[in-house]
Design goal:
143 residues, alpha+beta, Phosphorylase Kinase, domain 1, 6-stranded antiparallel beta sheet, 5 helices, 29% strand, globular
Length: 143
């Protein structure tokens, strides 16, 4: 499912698409109930219809929800829009650790902070059979 700017999903008003991959798309949105920015990750209809992929997505949500770390986006909500599952997460300006590493935009101090952080280890400890690249779920204000 493709969301459109201005479309409302529960208390969320979609602003824009900021990414897309094999599993679905990622959008920025406003949580109109409490006035905070969020990110919505919505599975494609094809993926949502595949029981194995749907279970994998649910495991991802459960794993992330168990993690508490300043550089891991917390899950605010897990729901469905027209049958396609989505998760609402904290929006952080600056992108993911993966993006920052790929662009080479981290300062030496930021690289040291990331290397010394327990965040990647926390994600790995919870990962078990989770196959996604967790660097995409680790965020910071890298700009």
């Amino acid at each position: 499912m493709t969301l459109q700017p201005g479309q409302e999903i529960g208390t969320y008003r979609v602003l824009q698409k900021i990414g897309e991959g094999g599993f679905g798309a990622v959008y920025t949105a406003d949580d109109t109930a409490i006035g905070r920015p969020v990110v919505l990750k919505v599975l494609t209809t094809d993926v949502a219809g595949n029981q194995e992929m749907l279970q994998r997505f649910q495991r991802e949500v459960e794993m992330i929800a168990r993690l508490e770390h300043p550089y891991i986006l917390p899950v605010y909500e897990f729901g469905q829009v027209e049958g396609d599952p989505y998760i609402a997460m904290r929006y952080m300006r600056g992108g993911s650790l993966y993006d920052a590493l790929r662009k080479g935009s981290l300062s030496a101090a930021q690289e040291q902070e990331c290397a010394g952080s327990s965040c990647p280890h926390a994600a790995q400890d919870q990962q078990d059979d989770h196959k996604d690249d967790e660097r995409a779920s680790i965020t910071g204000s890298w700009i």
